[in-house]
Amino acid sequence: MFDTLSDRLSGIFGKLRGKGRLTDADIDATAREIRLALLEADVALPVVKSFIFRVKERARGSEVSQALNPAQQVIKIVHEELVAVLGGEQRRLQFAKQPPTVLMLAGLQGSGKTTLAGKLARWLRSQGHQPLLVAADLQRPNAVGQLQVLGGQAGVEVFAPEPGNGVGDPVAVATASIEHARRSARDIVIVDTAGRLGIDAEMMAQAAAIRDAVDPDEVIFVIDAMVGQDAVRTAEAFRDGVGITGVVLSKLDGDARGGAALSVRQVTGQPILFASTGEKLADFDVFHPDRMASRILGMGDVLTLIEQAEQAFDADQKEKMAAKLMGGEQFTLEDFLDQLIAVRRMGPIANVLAMMPGMGQMKDQLAEVDDKHFDKVTAIIRSMTPGERTNPKIINGSRRARIAGGSGVTVMDVNQLLNRFAEAQKMMKQMGGMMGLPGGGGRRKATKSPKNKRKGAKGGRGGGARQRTGGMPAGFPGGGMPQLPPGFDPNALGGGDGLPPGVKLPKLDFNKLTKREKD
């Protein structure tokens, strides 16, 4: 959604590179371009004015004039002000002292309110709660049926005593749901209310009546992030007519300009609680203002990446890999397969890579990344016998031909995988040595002669095997596992033009991953 704005801001900051100091004219020109970029992204004018005023005021202060790198200081200021516009700190749901906690959803028809109810219920269930979905939208055709389907997918009970389609009293349904939740030991009640194609008195009156009947702990307004300034005006109307306490951004995966997302927090005065990015129930997460600001500025979102990895890698798997490293055991193709499957659970590889710092400058290449490459690798390993996965050295020519035939690939594909895996094993052995573990790879390397050191340095920092081997970024479970695309160098992060201090573009060999690859 923020691709256009990100590209504009990256171009603006690129003009500041190489400047030893920034004059008032430089600051004014940069602020003017940022202002135009925000207005083109459909950010509300009052938000833009206050944002630019704060950026200019801070840019003329001592934190920039006395900085060794003024351009990076300006980027830092813009990042911090974006975080402030988006709400500053993450705000969690407010739970009732005595259950059940009542969450009332409000919004226009088509904003994704009912789908959001299912996503929120699934997320709360994963947090250890027992939510109850309430079908109080009795006007929209098949709204009750849609919520029942979503509840079934999320594994959550749906309270739907009325068939809907214009039949039933939504206030009575909402009221009865509270008592039902108490009887069935549900600690959270999510009330899905009716919407309209536009704001009208009847809709507001019905929403206010439901609010008065159930006394919700949170009134959450679901806003379609693709609508633009109309969404902000609608949020203001609901704030004044019903009284909202939080906002959820839906359809953040769309191609709209994204101004509503940047405006709604400051215009309504209410925090953004969650963000919804797709049609699947799993496409839902807590909204973090600092992480969203980093994405907009092309800094990546490593924290979210690590959290997704923690969910994808189960505890037993992490303990198993840790034990292997501590015991100096050999890293096998079976381990490689387990790690690869876990990475695939994190979602499309292009989305995972997009969270890496600096990857915003590689949008065209990321668009060509094809997950079929990883499926092919999985098929090759699964075509091997247990003995071959444990000891790949026994895979001779006839075995390679059999594996290629069983997985539907060429012998060359099998050879490439085995060669890359051999390099990955060397890297794992070196990692064990560097951590002082059995295997001693790191210690032996430290005693090599200066001649060998110079020879290694000639090829670039980190050695050839490490440059050619894929791996997960630092902080991932079983860090250094070779489950990212070939050509990705996790050690390449560290300083780069136009990026924050300590950030450098990762090296990616997209030729091996593109959709144009012939399977």
What class, by secondary structure content?
Answer: alpha/beta
Rg from Cα: 27 Å
Give the distance, in angstroms, between the N- and C-terminal Cα atoms: 32 Å
Helix fraction, binned, reads 40-55%
Explain how this protein is built.
- With 519 residues, the protein is an alpha/beta fold.
- 52% of the residues lie in helices and 8% in strands.
- An eight-stranded mixed sheet has the order 3-2-4-1-5-6-7-8, with helices on both faces.
- α11 links the parallel β6 (246-250) and β7.
- It is flat, with a radius of gyration of 27 Å.
- The two termini are 32 Å apart.
- The relative contact order is 0.09.
Jot down its keywords.
single chain, 519 residues, alpha/beta, 8-stranded mixed sheet, 24 helices, 52% helix
